[in-house]
Write the structure tokens for this entry.
Amino acid sequence: MLDERKLDVLRAIVEDYVATHEPVGSKSLVDRHNLGVSPATVRNDMAALEEEGYITQPHTSAGRIPTDAGYRLFVDKLSTVKTLSPAEKKAISSFLAGAVDLDDVVRRTVRLLAQITRQVAIVQYPTLTRSSVRHVEVVTMTPRRLLLVLITSTGRVEQRIVETQHDVDEHLIADLRSRMNTALVGQRLTDAATSLANVTETFPPSDRPLVAAIVTSLLEAFSDDGEQRIAVGGAANLTRYGDDFERNVKPVLEALEEHVILLKLLGEATHPQTLTVRIGHENPYEELATTSVIATAYGSKSEALATLGIVGPTHMDYPSTMGAVRAVARYVSQILADS
């Protein structure tokens, strides 16, 4: 176990390296931080930290930089999540509150998260399996074409076109709309399919073919695989890696194009009250070994609807970034709850 003085030295090294992206020497630590010890003592502490694997010396005559283990210890023991200023909170709230629907919420969230963290932002759409039915609408577009609209509790909208062989009766459509909403509103989508299956049998045999076609389309909307829908923003922030595009940036860009990878990266974030931080080689993909992932879920206090987070270099400002991810998730949760 490291004593408090060595932990202070490690904290100072991480903070300086994140700020300068340059290896940190003992003299600069003494000059910049009130460590209360001599440069010789700091050098001894740095040697001990290096032996323990928390820092490393990239060049013979250079200072030290944190390792993945050093960042992990910093995140777990040494850092506190930075809270946003009142002005930042107001700006986030105002920006997200202007969203007109779920797609707009997701677009605004990914843009906002990328801007305030200066990292690559990832936002997963709420999954249908965790939503409930808010409203079902059936609209006559032409005498033989209907628009079926499913609106979920998370604000997600699914639409389907239903073609009919004969002109539809407006009274029948109104009756069907009423019966479907009575049967479905407030039900979880995982349960709604059972209730919907019984609706067809409540109509006269002559009306059942049309009703069955509409019910089938609605069941397709229920089963839509929303878990594969994500939004990514801020890829240009990867230029902050430096000039080594082929070694550092290009592999990350290629990995970000694989949405399955991104979903797995966010997958550990299962509770809105908890932040998940993966650092460097803790990521399961070699292409992302130079990055860290900070993620959390959004939704109610008791249940997650989906996840959001950022991907950035390991030398990121962890306290500020963790605070921003947590704050944005809370605001998105509140907006969806109020919508």
Observations:
- Strands lie at 55-56, 65-66, 120-124, 133-142, 145-152, 157-163, 230-233, 275-279, 291-299, 304-313.
- The mean pLDDT is 87.
- The chain is about 45% helix and 20% strand.
- Residues 318-338 form the longest helix (21 residues).
